Amino acid sequence: MDWQALWLSVKLSCFTVILLIPLAIFVGRELAYCQFKGKSWLEALIMVPLVLPPTVIGYYLLVGLGDQSIIGQWVEQLAGQQLVFHFSGLVIASIIVNIPFAVQPIQRAFETVPIDIRDAAACCGMSRVRIFFRVELPMIWPGVLTAVVLCFSHVLGEFGVVLMLGGNIAGETRTISIAIYDSVQAFDFDSAGMMSLVLLVFAVSALALTTSMSRRLGGHHGASQR
Amino acid sequence: MAPRNADLTCDISQTFPIPLEAHFSCRAGEVLAVVGPSGGGKTTLLRMIAGLTFPQQGQIRYGDAVWFDEQQSISLTPQQRHIGYLPQHFGLFPHLSALDNVISGLDHIPKALRKQRALDWLDRVNLHGFPNRLPAQLSGGQRQRVALARALAREPAILLLDEPFSAVDKETRERLYIELAHLKQQLSIPIVMVTHDIHEALLLADKMILISQGKMLQHGEPFEVISHPNDEAVARQMGLRNIFDGQVVEQDTERNMTTFTLGHELIVSDSAPKLTIGQNIRWVIPNQGIRFNTISSGRLCKSINKLEVLIESVLVMGESSRVMASVIDVGSIINADLPTHLVRKLALEAGVKTTIALKSDQIHILNP
């Protein structure tokens, strides 16, 4: 069991969720409530990571963030550190790959908030910020929870993009998925089995928890709108 | 906060996304019903008054305060207008208790006063036992009253009601009619109520406007609008089905009477709009202007405008029956809704010949 890889994966998942979810809430809300030119294109762009092979995304990120790229050179000048083959690069890659997993459930959750409720909140004299925190956020909470669990689990299991962009540097970029692959390559099936079991148990538990909480929160709030 | 007890004036027009044109005012203490078919622009108009959406052109004023003026680029938000708004499905916040829902509208008063005021208003709408219940734990009528308490606890400049009775059962609706009628006497603010039900307008409103396909067809007191529709479009929107052709035979402007034909029959109306002899007209008579008499009963109607009719069909619909009769030798079909007990008492059934009388003061000649 590669505890270092497990810890790195958990750390990567936490960073991704903490940085991505607020962004997804903003983007999801705009997509749910606002009509603007190019909305369909933006929605398609957000969904791209779902349909592109992870290696293709990894390749573009490697080219786009590498030391030959403008972004890569700019970051290296600013922070004295390359993005590729480094944990920070993995965080950026994880955020990009997980955008659809975060934005989709949150956008759908915003869309289920009835216009009557948003209108009533505005007519109650609440500011936009207060409407968001007091009315919208408690109502979209199941969607946010789903996004958190999906992103966290997906980052834990991410393989292709991580390998393309981060390589396999112990303690820096070797996540649990890569450690499983390494163990299998080294015929260490005990270790690979243990780590796979950890991921399996986590995935099932997380999904069961999400389903249960979504149902509880959904039922708790939903009946009044009928 | 907006000044209290002022009149609302609305002169707006737009062509996109839906065409809408409305020019009216609503005085403090008055209930204005906005009536019309679904999709006609009623709710859009209400949302414009609330500041939830803005028209392309025009002006909305509350007393001296300008809420919207496209020329001066003024468009106040709902928060700035300080209104009470009751959406069609009440818009209660599902995760907050009845009390917290009412408190949510009280951000403008000191925090220490909010709870007491919310409780007072829940009392006023007869919900004193339910402050901690979530909306999902309340009946439709109770939810409606929580939403009403939330809207009124703000002491709003105006009260906007969007189909306030459409989401509750008939019994609750009847009770809420009475409560709103009582409340209306206590409030001295303009109340604008959107409804598709003309009977609600007759019951509760002081004035009404009829809107269809974004156009304001008529504006006036509800009884006046239903008894004197401007034109055939209004008459049809008001559910008047007895609309006929006629030709002017005689007009007596001194006695305010017009005589015209219905086939070979002569009909007299107690109105004398400017018409010429021989002019073709359309005229209408509401349900309450038609009286049925059975020949067998021997009670012949003393009224003028007696017509021999043949009952074509009688459709019993609970306490009310729909009677369809054709005028003998003319062929025009007259529809009337009568109490079922009266239909039985008069022995009205298909195939029976009888006499009807059309009240001359209820006959209205439509504008061409």
Automatic annotation (TrEMBL), chain A:
Coiled coil: none annotated. Residues 6-210 form the ABC transmembrane type-1 domain. It is a multi-pass membrane protein. GO terms for molecular function: molybdate ion transmembrane transporter activity. GO terms for cellular component: plasma membrane. Pfam families: BPD_transp_1. This is Molybdenum transport system permease. The gene is modB. Part of the binding-protein-dependent transport system for molybdenum; probably responsible for the translocation of the substrate across the membrane. Keywords: Cell inner membrane, Cell membrane, Membrane, Molybdenum, Transmembrane, Transmembrane helix, Transport. Signal peptide: none annotated. NCBIfam families: modB_ABC. Belongs to the binding-protein-dependent transport system permease family. CysTW subfamily. It is found in: Cell inner membrane; Cell membrane.
Automatic annotation (TrEMBL), chain B:
It comes from the Bacteria. One of its GO terms (molecular function) is ATP binding. Keywords: ATP-binding, Cell membrane, Ion transport, Iron, Iron transport, Membrane, Nucleotide-binding, Transport. Residues 3-238 form the ABC transporter domain. InterPro entries: AAA+_ATPase, ABC_SmlMolc_Importer, ABC_transporter-like_ATP-bd, ABC_transporter-like_CS, ABC_transpr_FbpC, Mo/tungstate-bd_C_term_dom, P-loop_NTPase. Pfam families: ABC_tran. GO terms for cellular component: membrane. PROSITE patterns: ABC_TRANSPORTER_1, ABC_TRANSPORTER_2. The keyword Nuclease does not apply. This is ABC transporter ATP-binding protein. It comes from Shewanella algicola.
